[in-house]
Amino acid sequence: MEHESKSPHILSYGFLTGIFAVLMVLTATTIIVSRIELGFMNVVVALSVASAKAALVVFFFMHLKYENWTLKIMVLLAFVLLAICIGFTFFDIGPRT
Amino acid sequence: MTEHKDYAGSKMGMWLFLFTEILLFGGLFLLYSAYLHRYPGEFHEAGKTENLVLGGANTVILIGSSFTVALSITALRLGKIKHCLILLGLTVVLALSFLVNKFFEWSAKFSQGIYPGSEHMKTLPAGENVFNSLYFAMTGLHGLHVIIGSVLLSVVAVFVARGRVNRDDFVILENAGLYWHLVDLIWIFLFPLFYLIA
């Protein structure tokens, strides 16, 4: 038990560099795509890429992938609450305009 | 007598604090999305004035600084104190260069008469006015977090140098790192909202 909670996992320099490289590629992609006029799809692409980058930061840089399930569910819950907050607001303001 | 340490509890406490931060910025993201829905055209016009080069550079800088913090934790756990300190120093330098860029961006806006409460902003269409107000509120609050984060990381670097934070007891560095990653996480969303979407 003691060992489980001691977070034994150490991320190697190489692995972290790989994650950083992917984050840089995603940043370049989202900037390039934003220069192309796609209308509403621009918003979808920009936010999808941002979410993918956020997931990489949360799971690897913030080490969440290697944490216990209690913490994982707590983090999920926080983001779900935020999604409900923003999503349900649009149920209201969406049909109004 | 030995000091009681609760590694898992300490980390969970930090995450709980980060949730409050997520919801703090979440409220502002909610405002942004509601106003984008109301003034799509005016947000588009106002967004064109943002400096994509500085914004993009700041994205690279901040993700880079998140990377160096993650590396510093690995270095400490491998017992390489010197590497850890260099990486933390690099992180603080990157944080400061982020703020320098932000200073130039804000100055450019101020010189065009765009700042909270300015006479020029009142003459702009409502949507552009809201866009700029949200820009200052959100990047301002985020900038404050960058300042707090760099102070925090500097303090932890001193702890590492003195051996108070070491390869067997590193949760303080991990928690400071978590805070810094959160600052990066928020910027990852601010960047497309202000520089790309519009």
Plain-language structure description:
The complex is a heterodimer of chains A (97) and B (198). Chain A is mainly α and 97 residues long. Helix content of chain A is 74%, strand content 0%. Chain A folds into two domains: 12-64; 67-97. The longest helix of chain A is centred in the C-terminal third of the chain and has 28 residues, at 69-96. The model of chain A is unreliable at 1-5 (pLDDT under 50). The longest helix of chain B has 37 residues, at 126-162. Chain B has a single domain, classed as Cytochrome c oxidase, subunit III, four-helix bundle (Four Helix Bundle (Hemerythrin (Met), subunit A), Up-down Bundle). Chain B is mainly α. Chain B is elongated, with a radius of gyration of 19 Å. Chain B contains seven helices and no strands. The interface between A and B is large, with 48 and 45 residues.
Write the layout of secondary structure elements.
The complex is a heterodimer of chains A (97) and B (198).
Chain A (H helix, E strand, L loop, with lengths): L12 H22 L5 H22 L7 H28 L1
Chain B lengths: L6 H32 L1 H8 L4 H26 L3 H31 L7 H5 L2 H37 L8 H27 L1
